[in-house]
Amino acid sequence: MKESIGITPDVLIARDSLPAGLRCLSDNDGIFRFVTLWNNQHRLKQLPLIDDKMQIRFHHFYDSLASIHGGPLTKAFQDFKSVAEGFTLNSATEQELEELENALQITERANFEQCWPTILELLEQEFTVQILGERAVIERSLAADDALLKARELLADKDAMRSAMLKSHKADSY
């Protein structure tokens, strides 16, 4: 495990206690462990800023887990490499192995980048539930749904839309 991350795998919370969204991601060991450990070590009184710094830390953590445990591709490659080490390899074969390893790392990194927005959203939900409680999350969700419904009604009614735009224009001109 990389020391610069400041997260050590000490206590893992039960998967059943995770919100449904995080439970879906819990099959990915790296994501589950990171969320668990981050939550265990950051018992915050307010919503944290989940930013690029956290993404970088997660990425380091994810990479370190991949090197220790490995995803299915990495594990298969490591098994293959250990078998290959039992044979005498020429330089061309060794180069092919290195290229395959690099390609797998690029694939894993791309998978991570693709998953990050979902991970970010689920982490924000998890922190919100922890800090504000489930009721606040539901209320926030209902308020957003209500605002969306009002906007849709406004868009459907051209006169109401025109009236709202005129009010907005008058307010801006003062």
Would you mind describing this structure in some detail?
It contains 7 helices and no strands. It folds into 2 domains: 3-132, no CATH class; 134-174. The protein has helices spanning 20-25, 29-41, 52-68, 72-84, 91-132, 134-156, 158-173. The chain has 174 residues and is an all-alpha fold. The chain is elongated, with a radius of gyration of 24 Å.
Top keywords for this entry?
174 residues; mainly alpha; 2 domains; 7 helices; 75% helix; disordered N terminus
**Shape verdict:** elongated
Radius of gyration, Cα only, in angstroms? 24 Å
Strand content: under 5%
pLDDT below 50 for ≥5 consecutive residues: which ranges? 1-15, 18-28
SSE string: HHHHHHH
- Total domain units: 2
How far the N terminus sits from the C terminus, by CA atoms, comes to 59 Å
Total number of helices: 7
User: Would you count the extended β strands for me?
Assistant: 0
Mean pLDDT: 60
Sheet bearing the most strands, described? none
- Output the structural class: mainly alpha
Described by its quaternary structure, the protein is single chain
Helix content: over 70%
